[in-house]
Design a protein that fits this description.
CATH architecture of the largest domain: 3-Layer(aba) Sandwich
Number of strands: 17
Low-confidence stretches: 232-239
Order of helices and strands: HEEEEEEEEEEEEHEHEHEHHHEHEH
CATH topology of the largest domain: Rossmann fold
Number of helices: 9
CATH superfamily of the largest domain: Alpha/Beta hydrolase fold, catalytic domain
Helix content: 10-25%
Shape: globular
Oligomer: single chain
Distance between the termini: 90 Å
Length: 393
């Protein structure tokens, strides 16, 4: 009979447990596959990009993106299967910038399982890659600010919401106040988009380091309050009785940002800009509240009902609904800048042109820049880089 001292018993149990655990791990260890060590995105020296995904049982795999030049789902995005079950595709060369993509595996949209870099939209997530070579948005050896995901409670909507907030280099260690810039995203996107695919934090870091822009706090809220759709609901032709985002912005987002961050709260130190849908929000908020904003930027957008019946809506035009503000000369006196930029191939370029002419008709000194290209992040990053240096001067 073997006697075990009571004080040794716990140690013996632990040894037995470890032996069983190691044995079980060896028994259940799966065989490694090519997917376990796969580098799924490779940026080549000539700015071509190679993609790989392990899907040995798939019958068809395609590569899909949003604004990768000359590329998308269909024949241009089909991938080729190798004998080891890895599918591959080679695209480009493409210009420097950040790009979203997904894999379509037998018709199912899948984010890249081997790439942790992602970019959110309103209802889905994209994988993300960056092609360096554009100094204004590349990650450089300069002081960097911080981007925070901020949760706040919207009393207007009676639920919790999220925004992203950029604070400039040195904010945490200082005590000074900064101007505040509200930067809005477009349709289908969300509050994450400007800092992921839009590179806003890096663009501001580089501008501030080069002394091209004033250090500022940038607030990037979620512009959707529910699922997005184009046009009025089925059977409706008039504008909705209330705009939930405008209520949230004025009653919750601005008060939260300006009470939780060290920012000035006067008109001269407050700016707003947005792309596409966010440009529409900028006009819908900024023009009726010109007493709050001295700087307005509209990227690839305009007033979405400059003519009767535009965008499927009846009733008064945007101009008719805002006449009292458009013709208020006193409010115009404090407006430092209203700046538009749109691509010549953008499907909203005519809307932008008509809005600029309408504002000029009412006495606004509008700056309008027309670039090459279309309705893409490649343009919107350029527009932010051009607009931010003009603020708070």
């Amino acid at each position: 009979m073997i006697r075990v001292h009571a004080r040794l018993f716990p140690g013996i149990l632990l040894i037995c447990f470890l032996v069983v655990a190691v044995s079980s791990a060896q028994n259940f260890q799966r065989e490694l596959t090519p997917g376990d060590t796969l580098k799924s995105v490779r940026i080549l020296q000539d700015n071509r990009v190679a993609f790989y995904v392990y899907a040995p049982k798939a019958a068809e795999v395609a590569l899909g993106g949003t604004d990768i030049p000359g590329f998308g789902f269909g024949t241009g995005g089909k991938m080729t299967k190798r004998p080891d079950g890895v599918w591959e595709a080679l695209i480009g060369p493409i210009p420097p910038g950040s790009y979203r993509y997904v894999f379509s595996i037998d018709g199912v949209s899948v984010v890249d399982p081997r790439n942790p870099s992602t970019s959110e939209s309103n209802a889905n997530t994209w994988s993300l890659f960056h092609v360096s070579g554009a100094e204004f948005m590349d990650t450089k050896d300069v002081p960097h600010g911080a981007v925070a995901e901020v949760t706040y409670f919207s009393k207007s909507l009676n639920r919790f919401r999220r925004m992203h907030v950029y604070t400039p280099p040195g904010y945490e260690a200082g005590a000074e106040k900064y101007p505040v810039f509200y930067l809005l995203h477009g349709a289908f996107d969300c509050d994450d988009s400007w800092t992921s695919v839009g590179r806003a934090g890096f663009i501001l870091d580089n501008l501030i380091a080069d002394k091209k822009a004033v250090p500022m706090v940038v607030v990037m809220p979620a512009g959707h309050t529910g699922p997005f759709r184009f046009g009025p609901p089925s059977g409706e032709s008039e504008r909705p009785a209330r705009d939930e985002f405008i209520e949230d912005f004025l009653n919750d987002i601005m008060p939260y940002a300006e009470s939780h961050y060290r920012v000035y709260t006067d008109r001269a130190h407050r700016a707003m800009a947005g792309l596409s849908m966010g440009g529409g929000h900028t006009l819908n908020i900024g023009i009726p509240h010109l007493d709050l904003f001295a700087w307005l930027g509209v990227f690839s957008s305009g007033a979405f009902s400059t003519a009767p019946g535009a965008f499927g809506r009846s009733g008064p035009t945007w101009e008719e609904r805002h006449l009292e503000y458009l013709d208020n000369t006193k409010l115009k006196e404090g407006l430092k800048l209203i700046w538009f930029s749109t691509g010549s191939e953008d499907f909203l370029v005519q809307t932008s042109r008509e809005t600029v002419e309408m504002l000029k008709k009412h006495g606004f000194d509008v700056v309008y820049k027309e670039s090459a290209g279309g309705h893409t992040w490649s343009n919107w990053r350029d527009y932010l880089n051009a607009f931010a240096p003009q603020l708070f001067r």
